[in-house]
Amino acid sequence: MASTFLKNDEPGSLSDIYEIKILICYLLSCIEQPLSKEQVNYVFQFNSIVNYFSFCQALKELIDTHHIEEIFSVEDGKKILQLMPMGKNTASTLSGILQKSTRDKIISTAKQVLASEQQERDHQVSVTKVEDGYMVHLVIHDIGSDLLEMTLFAPDKQAAQQMAERFNQDAVILYRGMLGILQNDSMSIHQIADEIAKQNKST
């Protein structure tokens, strides 16, 4: 892979296209889930590691040299990046030239991005203003029918936001708690109460 330099003014950022190409291959090799061009770019921009134009050039060169292919996902039809054998070899043999802190940072961010997107797919929360307060609408999705859908009243905006944030954090616990109450399962309710108490102590 030829080495090209593009100026990047962010401290600690990469300007060497050669290193950027290695970093892209390394990221795709370490993350088991497929990533799109937009997701990889977001990871780099979030950490101010690679500017957008350098990223685009590096990715184009990787695609042109068959290190990476951009294909359509079978699941949703969106374009994703697929690491080819040459790209895998680049990641395994050359990633050591990159700083460990840089490698760790992009992997951590990518995992956070995927976890956040998965959370959004798994459940949704919306807040609607009504005449005497706010309505908080909660939905937990599943492959078939939704597992839970409910709407709760909040007297003010602060309470509504607090309910929405807690639902985003503990949607599974809420669902288990509802089942425990409806099924009169006192053991499950006690276990959930203990989990919440431990979470409150750690925050």
UniProtKB/TrEMBL annotation:
Superkingdom, taxonomy of origin: Bacteria
Pfam families cross-referenced by the UniProt entry: DUF4364
Protein name per its UniProtKB record: DUF4364 family protein
Organism of derivation: Clostridium facile
Organism taxonomic ancestry: Bacteria, Bacillati, Bacillota, Clostridia, Eubacteriales
